[in-house]
Specification:
Length: 208
């Protein structure tokens, strides 16, 4: 698998960065390193699995750079965990309120893509609930294909969204919902003059 050095990153601490974003990004760095070591993977091995360069992974683990959402999704897939699992710790509580200020947020400065994790990370349960916001004309870039059996659900809160899933393209508008099997590359673009805000659910419960 080819390794891409041209992926979007930014410095760990930037002007205007919220405390929630900073703490989430520090946790991401530590969790990627912990998961890699738990799986007895070298930096080179993880680079091969994920398609993310060794130098980029090293910078992320040292908290010198923050991965874009596409890069983080590639690393999560390679490490066998969900996106949210890399962004927040597991909790044992069955009733859990997550105040807005404590919800992990990942912002991609280059694309303007904002990703807020709404779901807790519970032992043995891997569903991700994410609030995504794309600026007008903004794109997520292509997410790597998940393992067979992983499904995604989308509900458009506002705006228009173009979804490219494998060789198919669909456009969803405010109030529309979308379901697809996520074992093909997929990318999303905000259409129109206003931001597109949508709820994303990733369900790996049938993953093989």
């Amino acid at each position: 698998m080819g390794v891409d050095d041209g992926m979007s990153v930014r410095e760990m601490v930037a002007p205007g960065q919220s405390g929630t974003e900073t703490s989430s990004q520090i946790y991401v760095s530590e969790e990627i390193r912990r998961r890699r070591r738990e799986l007895h993977l070298s930096l080179e091995a993880l680079a091969t699995r994920s398609g993310v360069s060794r130098s980029m992974i090293s910078k992320i683990e040292r908290a010198e750079a923050v991965p874009s959402t596409v890069v983080l999704s590639r690393l999560a897939e390679a490490l066998g965990v969900t996106f949210s699992r890399l962004m927040s710790p597991t909790t044992e509580r069955e009733v859990l309120l997550i105040p807005a200020r404590r919800q992990p947020v990942l912002r991609d400065d280059e694309s303007g893509f904002l990703r807020r994790c709404l779901s807790p990370v519970l032992p043995g349960r891997g569903i991700d609930l994410v609030l995504n916001t794309l600026p007008p004309g903004g794109s997520t870039g292509e997410f790597t294909a998940h393992r067979p059996g992983v499904s995604e659900y989308i509900y458009i809160l506002r705006g228009r969204l173009r979804a490219v899933i494998g060789d198919r393209t669909v456009v969803a508008e405010t109030g529309d919902s979308l379901y697809f099997e996520a074992d093909a590359g997929h990318a999303f673009t905000s259409l129109g003059k206003e931001p597109c805000e949508y709820i994303l659910v990733i369900d790996p419960s049938r993953a093989r």
